[in-house]
Amino acid sequence: MQHWVRLYFGLPLFLRLLCTVLIFMFSFGIFIHFLEPDNFPTLLDGVWWAFVTGSTVGYGDYVPLSPFGKLTAILLILTGGGVVTFYMATLSASTVKHEQDLSEGKVAYKGKGHILLIGWNERTRQLMDMMAKYGIEDQIVLVDQTMNHFYRRLSFVHFIKGSATEEEVLTKANVQEAKVAIITADPSKHEDQSDQTVIHQIVALKGHQPNLHIIAEMLTAKQRINAERAGANTVVRSNDFMSSLFFHELFRDDPVQPFQLLLDLITEKQFHEETVKPQFIGKSAPAVVDFYLKQHSTVIGVRIDDKISFDLHDGLELGEEDRILLFTPLRH
Question: For residue 319, what are the contacts with CB-CB under 8 A and spacing of at least 6?
Fold first, then answer.
């Protein structure tokens, strides 16, 4: 008996209340069936009456007629009705509390194969918008310590509040089951300080999952090697990228706008790399251009012995180990 009592009180409050309601209703239903078998011919009739009466619905299809039956009904209304009301109130409060905890980043993520996104800023916001636009259903776990609550209602985003260097936060984000992590630089910090924070986050993530693929944003070129040593698979140097765009915009001699052109290109196409198809081995690079154009893809270069060439001249023959670099339509 003590074991069952301990098991009962070990259940979550929601389940304890549900069990209490069921015990009350079934007990009264069974009792009224044996007390007035003529008015409640089956156990199901008695249980039905108990649930209808205890929840104060009162259809009146089954009614106790004897004095003891009426006293039983009064006791059911006084006890069972209160239990049902308390159960519904607790259920409603728990639902509201869970919704609040979700928006405040307090609920652990239980899924797997998700994208871990560290840092809430304009770049991560636009990334989510692009995923929503193209119908990409990959689940995102957003980790950020600057927001008190996540105001956007996106079904594919789960918010965790805290620092990505803290053990508890990484456990809540279920880093062990993540497939890739993206670490963005904090624009509110000094460049060196921001890069050091990113490196600390890389080390923390690798400590949880050594095989996790990490894409890290760095602001200074001198910290790139440290980020790679820490375990970053890809280092995005945002300052170098923007400086190159500024140079092209500043010294262009024609009406082409490099920034807008590149932005339009990468929002509609994506980089792709694949091996040379057997029918093109030994052929010149231009021979594959028409083939991929018919598939709405653009050949932009070839990778030969880990060196990339953008010069697709007739004398460039493709080998079995070479790879073709493409711009392909974004996946839907």
Answer: 276, 281, 282, 304
- In angstroms, how far is CA 70 from the centroid of its own chain? 55
Is residue 109 assigned to a domain? no
Strand-pair category, 115-118 with 140-144:
parallel
Q: For residue 11, what is the domain's CATH number? A: 1.10.287.70
CATH number at residue 238: 3.40.50.720
Domain assignment of residue 250, yes or no: no
Instruction: Indicate whether 154 belongs to any domain.
Output: yes
| Among candidate residues 242, 266, 285, the one where a domain is terminated | 242
Fill in the DSSP letter of residue 106: -
Question: Distance (Å, rounded) from C-alpha 43 to C-alpha 30?
Answer: 6
Indicate the pTM of the whole model. Answer: 0.65
Q: What is the pLDDT of residues 261-294, one digit of tens each?
A: 776 767 777 888 888 888 888 887 777 887 888 8
Query: Six-digit token pair at 282?
Result: 């030994």
| Long-range contacts, 193-202 (Cβ 8 Å, 24+) | 194/219, 195/219, 195/220, 195/223, 195/226, 195/227, 196/223, 198/223, 198/227, 199/223, 199/226, 199/227, 199/230, 200/165, 201/118, 201/164, 201/165, 202/227, 202/230, 202/231, 202/232
